[in-house]
Amino acid sequence: MHHTLRPALRLLATLAVAIVYGGPAPAQQLTSTEVLLPVGQSVRHFPLTTNIPWDTLAGTNVLWDYAWITADSTAGAVYTGIPVAAAPDAGDYPGADHVIRRVNGVNNDYVVDQFFDTDGGLVRELGSVGPVLTYVFDGPETQFAATMDLADTLHGAYCFGSDGFGVQYHFCGDSYVTFDAMGTLVLPFGTYTDVKHVTHWRSTVETTIPDADTSYTITQQWYVAGTAFPMLEALLFIASDGTIYPSGRIMDLASLTGLADRDQAPDFQLYPNPAAEVVTIQRNGNDATTIDVITMDGRLALRERFATGEAQHTLAINALPAGSYVVRVAGGGAQRLIKE
């Protein structure tokens, strides 16, 4: 697999010197408002338990069928856009005008603030502060342009110092980001159109001990129209010895529901909520339609149907494990359900 990646990387580097396509339609643009969470908005991501294969598809009308992937709903992190002034270490990053906070851990006590500068038509990462690892870019890493057309590639050199576990290191490298494809993304809990795909390639060379680390990473991200932050991300870390370490994360269904149904308020009532044994769905329509109860990591837990003319339906949920679910009525929106 390592050898098959090399031609793709060479092609990506070649794209860095030119824009392949010219004059795309406005819909074929990726903006900084899509890649950075606005202040006050939060999303949760779960780590993938299955790995997405390396994908070199490009252009328009691409189909990514990942209905088979699974995630670990017992883990994950919440990402929130916060005011710069709310970050305790903002003074160490005077150029920062945007901060994304990640919170995870058993007691939600692992907090990392990531600092960005969005001036000058670029989105540049300035550094990150966490309880274990902190790093500061002395040469900020360019992550996106304020606006990128389909097939645009952006290159940037960077350097940063890291401090964690009592050891200090310094790294430098090159990064390339390409907005390379648009299409339809199929996930376990739904299908999304007009999705934008971005590929990041990043080399890393440790300068404190030359040749000690010559690793690189390739990251794929999928963005849904009308929202900020990637809904799906797949990462390959290729170590200096050629060993490949895959990972990934997916936005949880509660976060995605607000996107998929953003133009449609739920057209049904759900009670009681929370519930332990049964829950009643009262709707306004009368057509036959499907009722899905879905876990927060996208698995279908229960499926029943409204019959034609049926305005009220009772679901027996006593066999479901306690936790959070999403109840979705086809054509009628979705709501969160707490199972006690």
H/E element order: HEHEEEEEEEEEEEEEEEHEEEEEEE
Strand runs, count: 23
- Calculate the mean pLDDT score and round it: 82
In DSSP terms (H or I, runs of 4 or more residues), the helix count works out at: 3
What structural class is derived from the secondary structure elements? mainly beta
In angstroms, what is the radius of gyration?
22 Å
The largest sheet is:
12 strands, antiparallel, barrel
Large-scale geometry: elongated
Beta fraction:
over 45%
Give your account of this protein's structure.
- With 340 residues, the protein is mainly beta.
- It has two domains: 2-259; 265-339, Immunoglobulin-like (Sandwich).
- Helices cover 8% and strands 52% of the residues.
- The chain has three helices and 23 strands.
- It has helices spanning 2-15, 32-35, 253-260; strands at 29-31, 42-47, 59-65, 77-82, 98-104, 110-117, 122-129, 133-145, 147-149, 153-164, 167-187, 190-203, 205-206, 216-223, 232-238, 244-251, 268-271, 278-283, 289-295, 300-306, 312-316, 323-329, 333-339.
- A twelve-stranded antiparallel barrel has the order 2-4-5-6-7-8-10-11-12-14-15-16. Strands 20-19-22-23 form a four-stranded antiparallel β-sheet, covered by helices on one side. A three-stranded antiparallel β-sheet has the order 17-18-21, with no helix packed on it.
- The protein is elongated.
